[in-house]
Each structure stands twice: as structure tokens, then as C-alpha cells.
Design a protein that fits this description.
This protein is mainly α. The protein is built from seven helices and three strands; from the N terminus they run ααβααββααα. The chain has a three-stranded antiparallel β-sheet. Strand 2 and strand 3 form a beta hairpin. Helix 1 packs across helix 2 and helix 2 packs across helix 5. The longest helix has 19 residues.
């Protein structure tokens, strides 16, 4: 396979896209772009994620080759997560999208307000 075909319903690239662009996938990629983190550090950094969802998201991203999990043979167990080279590449793209959203929040919020039922009712009066 030379490249994926996202518009093809049977293409496995859709599953990878789902992992990367899920709310938690995006936030984990952004957090790990800032450096290596332990599980508990990531959970604090990515506010609102449950332990189960963080573990699942990290597993998906690891399976897709975007995250590297390193387990140290100590007690208590010490595990760290970091982006792979492939993860660093996609992390840059995801950070660019997140930056665009943050920069354009005022415009987006104005567009949302303009579509609000209250605003539309007021305009009809």
C-alpha cells in the first residue's frame, strides 16, 4: 500500500484518523509534543480525561506507531510515554490545528452567536 484512501469506507486509514483526531488523541499528542510524561502527569495535563480513556488513547496511539511506551523495571512500576518520530510529525500538524482554533476562537464564537436561536428570533421581530 502506497498511501491510504480516507474517503474509501474500507480503508484502514480511517481508524488511524479516528485515533489521532479524537478529542483525547489530539490532546495527548499536544501534551506529548512538549516532552516525555508519566501516565499520572499526562492525566493531570490533559484535564478531564478519565484513567480508562487515557489508557485506551495511549494504547491506540502506541499501536499506530505514534507513541513510545517505556517501562522501567523498578518497584513501584515506572512507565513513561513520548512521541515517536512519526508521532512528532503528526504532533506538529495537530498543534497547528489547535493553534488555529485558539487564535480564531473570537471569530468562531461570533459565528456561533449569530446562529443562536435567540439572535435569530430577535432579528425576526
Amino acid at each position: 500500500m502506497q498511501r491510504g484512501e480516507l474517503l474509501d469506507v474500507n480503508c484502514p486509514s480511517r481508524e488511524i484518523l479516528k485515533h489521532m483526531t479524537s478529542r483525547w488523541g489530539v490532546l495527548v499528542l499536544i501534551a506529548l509534543a512538549q516532552g516525555t510524561h508519566r501516565f499520572s502527569e499526562l492525566r493531570r495535563k490533559v484535564g478531564g480525561v478519565s484513567e480508562k480513556m487515557l489508557a485506551q488513547t495511549l494504547q491506540w496511539l502506541e499501536d499506530d506507531g505514534l507513541v513510545v511506551r517505556t517501562s522501567f523495571p523498578v518497584m513501584p512500576p515506572h512507565v513513561e510515554y513520548r512521541l515517536s518520530l512519526l508521532g512528532e510529525e503528526v504532533g506538529e500538524k495537530v498543534e497547528a490545528l489547535a493553534d488555529w482554533i485558539e487564535i480564531n476562537m473570537p471569530r468562531i464564537m461570533r459565528a456561533r452567536a449569530a446562529r443562536s436561536p435567540l439572535v435569530q428570533e430577535a432579528g425576526a421581530l
